[in-house]
Amino acid sequence: MDSADMILITGATGFLGGATVVQAIQAGLAPRLLLLVRAQDPAQGMDRLQVQLKRLGAGDSELAQLRLSQILCGDLSALDSIAADPRLQRVSTVIHCAALATFANHPALETTNVDGTLALAAMMQGRPGLRRFLYIGTAMACGTHSASDHSIPEIANLSLAQEDHLVPYTRSKAIGERLLRQRFPQLPLVVLRPSIVVGHTKLGCTPSQSIFWVFMAWQKLGALTAAMHDKIDVVPVDWCAGAILHLALKDKLAQPVFHLSAGTQSSRSFRQIDSALAAAGMGNVCGRDYEQIEVGKIDLLLPRIKIRIPDCSPRLLMRALKLYGEFAKLNYVFCNKNLLAEGVPSAPPFTDYIGLCATSTRHIPIGEQMKWDFK
Question: Are the CB atoms for 32 and 70 separated by under 8 Å?
């Protein structure tokens, strides 16, 4: 890759996009970054960006490596205003992390995750220097069907049927994938699907409490919709960001679709997760099985919720646990054969850093943590 080539990253003020920017700076790539940020001007965009990058562990010396000239002010819903920007002619790699990631039924989901993605592809297709367009999807876009052993292969075609998706978010990401392939067949597209991104191996959940609160809620309630021996595929955001950069910069890739997942190597069972929480001083029910409860009977937990998790809305928590309970009982492990073949190291197991996650959220009410996922 020529030193003048630029790496366009969208979603840099988000969790995964911001972590990718931090990793890029630490890898010596700061001068080659072009960052799409919603802002009135580059100064405001830099302010927004720095707040997020600091949250993700960037130091002052690392932040100082970014220049105002690397801020591309724009929004996925209005890219026509920046399509003629000369900096885009120097872009060789697009890392499209921007998305509305929420499990709420947000009215702007498809506008952002589908229409915005297609607008970005339309803006970048045909540019002479473009060699790779990385679309960051989600492994859960596979829907609710799996192989008999609950393994999910790294295949291209995903179901778009509403009944195959537990939440509109995963369907919106599947639609984005499908339409990119159909409408832009010449786009050098590579699809990366992270599994369940929780926490950071050095910062715990300080940058984001997304999803971690679910494990704490199950643990406090002593109930779970899955069996204790069932596994869950969780990866930390910093490892995920490193995998994205590795695939973005490698000269050739053997496959067009990759799961950024723990896979069989690093997925852990709910029993192992409970033991790790106990080792972190959070083991209220360690040593006995959780009550395995059907999703349809979660309402029966209401009295327990009021006593054990009094700092949140019981009705909202029950609704959330029903949703996450459906995901948990799928017992998915996402195959990552394509990823490992490209030289990406296995993800650190969730149990290796769950203590940091627990410590960093110890004084944050579960009701407050839930806001990360229900925007």
Answer: no
From residue 3, give the alpha-carbon distance in Å to each of 36, 59, 71, 106. 20, 24, 18, 41
pTM: 0.95
The DSSP line for 155-185 is -S-----GGG-SSHHHHHHHHHHHHHHHH-T
Q: Which residues pair with 9 in a beta bridge?
A: 35, 95
- Do the beta carbons of residue 247 and residue 29 sit within 8 Å? no
Give me the DSSP letters along 346-359.
Answer: PPPPHHHHHHHHHH
Report d(CA 290, CA 230) in Å as an integer.
12
Residue 355 in domain = no
pLDDT in tens, 130-179: 999 999 999 999 988 655 566 899 989 898 988 888 889 999 999 999 99
The Cα–Cα gap between 205 and 217 comes to 15
Helices 237-249 and 15-26: crossing angle in degrees, nearest 10, is: 60
User: One-letter amino acid identity for 40?
Assistant: Q
Can you give the CATH number for the domain in which 79 is found? 3.40.50.720
Residue 59 CB contacts under 8 Å (≥ 6 apart), including other chains: none
For residues 290 and 223, give the distance between their C-alpha atoms in angstroms, rounded to a whole number: 5
Rounded-to-integer distance, Cα 94 and Cα 42, Å? 20
Structure letter (DSSP) for residue 301: G
Phi, psi of 200 (to 5 degrees): -140, 140
- Is 303 within a domain? no
pLDDT, tens digit, 9 for 90 and up, residues 280-311: 887 655 456 789 999 999 999 999 999 999 99
Evaluate whether residue 111 is within a structural domain: yes
Question: CB 201: neighbour CB atoms within 10 A?
Answer: 16
Question: Diameter of the chain by CA atoms?
Answer: 62
The domain total for the chain is 1
| β partners of residue 44 | none
Domain span at residue 113 reads 6-199+232-267+332-347
pLDDT-based confidence at residue 1 (cuts at 50, 70, 90) = very low
Q: Is residue 49 part of a domain?
A: yes
